[in-house]
Design brief:
about 280 residues, alpha/beta, single chain, lipid binding, DegV_C, lipid-binding, 11 helices, Rossmann fold, DegV, DegV_domain_contain
């Protein structure tokens, strides 16, 4: 049997992955000398409170190999194989931690994939892979489907401020200075696994309106697009977008997941971020 291994950058809840039998690994949040797991020790709301008030810039650390070792040990003892769907190596060291741990289990079939995704799109890929294992597909068949699905992914973010991207080293000084002076609201995307600028708008209202335009022009109608919405302390806006996009794209609103972005992502995006991802045909 194939066991799926994911981590918290997929934005899936601990309850959901436990219910589905998916193994789950946390990211590590570092605030000064203190460290926290972001699955059981610090959630998004608690993190944002610390982020807003702490004089120390929070940082992240990828899960170390020691967190993967007991998972691989259990899978080995069960006589199963493992498929680790890791976030993009461009934004996380998760892939490396899993790879190092896998070296201690040379006789177990452990596949570790750099999905080049993160957040809700990664979560939907994880859920799809779990569905394929339940249907009895082989490892090679699942890997082929993962690769094909990964290439169809689209995601767009609107951040409330450029400050956190700048402090986290995701944008340069010039772009941060110009963007801040002009009070630009950037729309970001993922390109080849790294965060990239798509375009900018002069106000939050315009950025959100443009975000909806992009989604409506690209996202295929119907639930098969796996449209999902993510946010950082912007639940009301996320719910409003679901109410608008659902009918327009022939997707029942209750079938549009709304995810809290995890602390490991909020470190760089900051509060107020809104994101939408989906898969094209």
């Amino acid at each position: 049997m194939i066991k799926i291994v994911a981590d918290t950058t997929s934005c899936l809840t601990l309850e959901e992955v436990q219910k589905r039998g998916i193994y789950y690994v946390p990211q590590i949040i570092v605030i000064g000398e203190e460290t926290y797991r972001d699955d059981t020790e610090m959630n998004a709301i608690e993190f944002l409170q610390r982020q807003r008030t702490s004089p120390i810039l929070p940082k992240t650390a990828a899960p170390p190999p020691a967190l993967y070792t007991p998972i691989f040990q259990e899978i080995t003892e069960q006589g199963n194989s493992a498929l680790v769907l890791a976030p993009s190596t461009q934004v996380s060291g998760t892939y490396r931690g899993a790879s190092v741990a896998a070296q201690d289990f040379p006789n177990t079939d452990i596949r570790i994939i750099d999905t080049q995704l993160i957040a809700g799109g990664l979560g939907q890929l994880v859920l799809a892979a779990q569905e394929w294992t339940e249907r009895g597909l082989s490892m090679d068949e699942i890997l082929q489907r993962v690769e094909a699905m990964r290439k169809r992914h689209r995601v767009y973010f609107v951040v409330d401020t450029l400050d956190y991207l700048y402090k986290g080293g995701r944008i340069g000084t010039a772009k941060h200075l110009i963007g801040s002076l002009l009070q630009m609201k950037p729309i970001l995307t993922l390109q080849d696994g790294h965060v990239a600028s798509f375009e900018s708008q002069r106000t939050q209202k315009r950025a959100i309106a443009r975000l909806k335009e992009i989604v409506l022009s690209e996202c295929p109608p119907g639930p098969q697009s796996r449209l999902n919405i993510m946010h950082g302390d912007a639940l009301e806006l996320a719910q409003s977008l679901a109410q608008e996009l659902g009918p327009a794209l022939n997707i029942p609103v209750e079938q549009i997941p709304i995810y809290d972005l995890t602390p490991a992502i909020l470190v760089h995006s900051g509060p107020g971020v809104i994101a939408i991802s989906y898969f094209t045909n």
